[in-house]
Amino acid sequence: MKKFLALLLCLTLTLTAVITLVSCSKDGSGTGGDDIDLSAGSVEQYYETGNEYGDKFEYEIVNGDEIAIIGFAGSHTPHAITVPAVIDERDVTTIAVGAFYQLSNISSVTLPNSVTTVKDLAFAGCTALTSVTLSTATVTLGEGVFSGCTALTAISLPAGITAVPDRAFFGCVALESFTAPGALSIGEQAFMNCVKLTAVSGCTALAKVGNFAFFGCTVLNGFDFAAVTEIGNYAFTNCYALAKPVLAETVTVGTNAFYIDSAAN
């Protein structure tokens, strides 16, 4: 048990370090690599919506003729935002690393169908965010993309997304339901500590569940294991409401994948 607790502490400290690094990089005070330094080489350009909240999107041109949203500013009052589909006569295709990181003034977000990529930690720590409408064209979500969105209650992924990345919904303590297309893999710690998550729906061809993917999802009671071929270490640890499935011998099952700590319940 001591080894288990030590491993959990290590994972928590790792996530904290990653988020801190992105926070420093965004304000220019960090020394992170080019992949997370949003200010490096960028010319500040803003798209002002002119709405009552004074919303404006910071952006840059990427791939020659596309737009990436790299930041946002607006009223401190939590409100719904809609990312524009076109800026400067160019399609908005990307939400950059940490673009909306830890903003507390966003209650819901709608992405246009031009957006194909939402990068690492794009909406991480948006504690007022209750709902998200993803683009039907989105095919890639980055690591930790909605981690720490403690007010998010439900999420539905478009058909083009075939992987839930590591820590995508880590600590989304209000998340109750998750719906996704049939073919899917779920990364490490993807739903760790989502204590209100009751069901994972639509994933009829879900093949891989990563380490700690649903660790601590204490009320999870709906999950389709029919197509699963690999289950990681501690993947469903302390999922008290989930009946342990009968799996084929060909399924790879990691250490303590269905471990229940009765003392913690």
Structure notes:
The structure is a single chain. The chain is elongated, with a radius of gyration of 19 Å. The two termini are 15 Å apart. Helices cover 9% and strands 25% of the residues. The chain has one helix at residues 2-26; strands at 45-48, 56-62, 66-73, 79-82, 86-87, 90-95, 106-110, 117-118, 131-133, 140-141, 154-156, 163-164, 177-179, 183-186, 199-201, 205-209, 230-231, 252-253. It has 265 residues and is mainly beta. The strands form four sheets. Strands 1, 2, 3, 5, 6, 8 and 10 form a seven-stranded mixed β-sheet that branches. Strands 12-14-16-17-18 form a five-stranded parallel β-sheet, with no helix packed on it. It has a three-stranded parallel β-sheet with strand order 4-7-9, with no helix packed on it. The chain is built from one helix and 18 strands.
Unreliably modeled segments: 1-42
Structural class: mainly beta
- How much helix is in the residues? under 10%
Tally the helices.
1
Order of helices and strands: HEEEEEEEEEEEEEEEEEE
Average residue pLDDT = 86
User: What is the β-strand count?
Assistant: 18
Radius of gyration: 19 Å
Distance between the termini: 15 Å
Coarse shape: elongated
Strand content: 25-35%
Largest sheet, strands/sense/barrel: 7 strands, mixed
